[in-house]
Amino acid sequence: MNEESDGRLSFDEAVAHVLQKRQAVFCAMPVFGDRTDDEEQTAEGARIFVIEPDGAGDWQMRFIAGPFFSAAFAANEVLVPGEVPDSVRALRFMPTRVTDDCYEEQTQVLIQKLVQGSGIAAQLPDYAGMPMRKAEEQVVFPVNFIGRDGDQAH
User: Fold this and answer.
1) DSSP-derived secondary structure letter, 93
2) Nearest to 144, CA basis, from 88, 91, 89, 90
3) What is the pLDDT of residues 43-97, one digit of tens each?
4) Contact assessment for residue 68 and residue 107, using Cβ atoms and an 8 Å cutoff
5) From the CB of residue 86, how many other CB atoms can be counted at a distance below 10 Å?
6) Which of 39, 43, 69, 129 is the most buried (most CB within 10 A)?
């Protein structure tokens, strides 16, 4: 299947979709720890980008990043159109349905709900039914803030 027919939208197509249909689109990217030669290396967390209506006739982007299986989030920000970096504009997005309460979920549960809202036939574990664990206060999730200058990171 080529990139053009896989159901994903370019950034500009995604923004047009949000503005025309008043429905969100998303992109999720795994985050790995220190890279090793281990073929079994698994993602430690994810970066999630959701373009959604802003409630005033335009759009905004939610950037959420955090570790899997933890209630700790490294980021949960709303970006206005002028703040979205070019590196994010190069991503491809899937239409989905999302509610505000989804943003309170653990990272993997949020991804599960976004995938379910998109209608993608993906087999994901039932993360919402798993017991919730919280990270200890001193735990820091390593996130590179999507290409922003260091003085802009929150």
Assistant:
1) B
2) 88
3) 788 999 999 999 999 999 999 998 888 777 778 899 999 999 999 999 999 999 9
4) yes
5) 8
6) 69
